[in-house]
Amino acid sequence: MTTEQLHQYFLKSSGACTDTRKISENCLFFALKGDNFNGNKFAAEAIEKGAGLAVIDEEEYHTEGKTILVDNVLESLQDLGRFHRNYCKAKVIALTGSNGKTTTKELMHSVLSQSYRVIATHGNLNNHIGVPLTLLRIKEDTEIAIIEMGANHQKEIAFLCSLAEPDFGYITNFGKAHLEGFGGVKGVIAGKSELYDYLKDKNSPIFMNADDPVQREKLENYIKKIGYSTEDKNYYRINFLGASPFVSLEAEGTVIKTQLVGQYNFNNCCAALLLGKYFNVPMVLIQDALSEYIPENNRSQLIEKSGYHILLDAYNANPTSMKAALENFHQLQSPAKSVILGDMFELGDDAELEHQEIADLAAASNFSEALLVGENFSKCKTGLMQFKSFEQLAEYLQKTRLPEGDLLIKGSRGMALERVLPLLS
Questions:
Q1: Domains of the chain with bracketed CATH
Q2: pLDDT value at residue 98
């Protein structure tokens, strides 16, 4: 079956699905395979739950009129996503970077939705499966699609670009994330810059933070760059007004007070503001969008609980974001500031050094309390309290109450440090 033929089936469906727990009536179920599962085995279940058809790649599960047999389900999903992207007329904005991707995506969506019909990546569906699924959410009347792209090794962004074929792009930053897969910081820069390479080949516009020396160097001789800066008059000027604790900024005489905690969120706001200006969203609507956005999903959430002002940033962590969070938290004016920090994952051979540097920074910050949890943090040489597992931390918190005041909780997703919250009552 050709991709064009499969697309005709897709257009008659209610959408694409890869999880039998999320079947919608008349959806097109893609029976993906993984290391520990075979989606072909669930094709019949998907049909029973209401799927219109199931796309499979093993003949023994084929049922005439209920399944579509293809050579490779994943490749068919990816090809279909690319085909549908070109079938629709939406402009595609690709977004990647080491830190702040998802918050920036949500802010861009909030701003651009003021004037356009926009879809954006749900959650963190930003890989070789998530990107085509997002592309398949584009409707014929969608005007802009914001596609988040994640990567933990080189050539991954290049591949995702081949699927989404973006018209515009933005890289939030180049930080110490996924060092194991990328092979160090230089590998991170090379891998993320594959978005630049793709857009340059198409002679397409690139949005940039002109205050980032890496971005300035990468785009030095590129003509179609649209940037913002706090200093350079050659770019769109945005001024940082403060983050105590919420970020405030100013552009064109308009002051915008956000509900985002931490100076590290300033650039995320700037990117959304820049896109809004480029796409001619009125400044008053940009102001509304940025000021009304409230973070969720454990990302820089400010929570009041049991005498604590909690900054919960437990969705992800790497050395760059951890350092930024600690420095911002240290600057807050508060009589009592405590931190609970969890391990940072996918650092490879750099794990020991990077965790030690964060432990040293936390120790030098003289917080009221600083608790480190995880295999890597437990190996650091420090005078701070260390816990090898979350269970050990939980046992401590059930017996010991931290000083009331400000509390930063940050760690990689695998640490699931939001589990600390019920222990603070």
A1: 3-71 (3.40.1390.10), 88-292 (3.40.1190.10), 301-424 (3.90.190.20)
A2: 85
Task: Report pTM.
Answer: 0.84
Helices (H), 32-177: 43-48, 73-87, 101-112, 130-135, 156-164
∠ CA 257-113-108, nearest 5°, is 55
List the structure tokens of 291: 């000021």
- CB neighbour list of residue 326: distance below 8 Å, 6 or more residues apart: 339, 358, 361, 362, 365, 408
Alpha-carbon span 72 to 249, nearest angstrom: 49
Report CA Rg, the chain. 23
The pair of three-digit structure tokens given for residue 388, joined into one six-digit string: 């090898």
Give how far Cα 188 sits from Cα of 90, 214, 217, 385, Å: 29, 12, 15, 32
Find out whether 291 and 277 touch, Cβ atoms under 8 Å.
no
Q: What is the pLDDT of residue 115?
A: 98
Which residues make up each annotated binding site? 97-103
Q: Cα(416)–Cα(315) distance, rounded to whole angstroms?
A: 8
Number of alpha helices (DSSP H) and beta strands (DSSP E) in the chain = 15, 20
263, 255 contact by CB (below 8 A): no
Listed residue (149, 143, 151) closest to 164, CA to CA:
149
Structure-derived torsion over alpha carbons of residues 218, 224, 226, 232, reported in degrees to the nearest 10? 60
Cβ–Cβ under 8 Å, residues 102 and 124: yes
Joined tokens for residue 11: 């257009």
> Which pLDDT value is given to residue 418?
93
Question: Please, what's the b/e burial string for 292-314 (b: 16 or more CB within 10 A of its CB; e: otherwise)?
Answer: ebebeebbbbbeeeeebbbbbbb
What are the average pLDDT values for consecutive 10-residue runs of the chain, which has 425 residues? 95 96 96 91 95 96 94 97 97 93 95 98 92 97 97 90 98 77 79 95 97 95 97 96 91 96 92 98 98 81 87 86 89 89 91 95 94 96 96 94 93 92 89
**Contact assessment for residue 61 and residue 47, using Cβ atoms and an 8 Å cutoff:** no
Q: Cα(94)–Cα(135) distance, rounded to whole angstroms?
A: 11
Alpha helices (runs of H) in 293-403, residue ranges in sequence order: 319-331, 351-364, 390-399
Supply the DSSP symbol for 284. H
Annotated binding site for ATP: 97-103
